[in-house]
Amino acid sequence: MTDAYERMMRANQSNWDARTPVHLASRFYGIDGEPDPSRWFASWEWDDLREVAGRDVLHLQCHLGTETIAFAERGARTVGLDFSAASVTAATGIAARAGFDVTYVQANVYDAVEALGGRRFDVVYTGKGALCYLPDLDRWAGVVAELLRPGGRLYVVEFHPLLNSLGPKPAPEEGPELLLRHDYVGGSGPVHRDATHTYTDGPAVEGATDSYEWTHGLGEVVNALIGAGLNIRRLRESPELPWPRWPHMVRGSSGWWRLPEPRIPLLYGLLASR
């Protein structure tokens, strides 16, 4: 990884340290109440993951651990990893208050093998806004392959590249039309953001407001995993999100939100095995 990319990732780390108190104070994450990890998962995720009780599960780029504790709730031996010290501290406290046994480790995802002492896992889970902060997916896929036991499974649930190409959110003066703002495929370098507010309803970010994101098309993700020796077992595309990104979205029977039209993929789920 180049010096420029390392500098950008350090900026992202500082930005997520600064975001953490903002997210803890937001209604979006609902940290002040009883944690409800199930709200962040589609039913098809558990269909693909199957039984996790008694398994060793690692959640990469876990932030506050709102999804991580779902695995502990289902009986897995659960570890969460994130590069933000503030996030790891917050996640540890959230899990302890909720009575869940989760181990959290602070490390850059590229350093996960060393940070976890060479430990291997039955399931590695990642997603919903994680891969866009990684400049090198080939290196990421190699790390994942080292973290998995033979027969172990990776499950990626991510915002669809089409959703990412529409931008983080519509401007207040815009109508319901969907406008492409960013590339669908990668290769043109990072998108630089300097934002005082995040995707949540929390207060303004103080201090480190710069962040960098990289575009990764579905083909890039799939080919990186194949290149690392993993077998692609399933790929799903879903038209639903766990919150209403656009005001005209409608709530479905699942409790998640979809566009009335056009029907486009907003999330994808990718299952791979070692």
TrEMBL record:
Entry keyword set: Methyltransferase, Transferase
Transmembrane segments: none
Pfam assignment, any one: Methyltransf_12
Keyword Secreted in annotation: no
GO molecular function: methyltransferase activity
Keyword Methyltransferase: yes
Protein's GO biological process: methylation
Methyltransferase type domain residues: 58-154
Name listed for the protein in its UniProt record: Methyltransferase
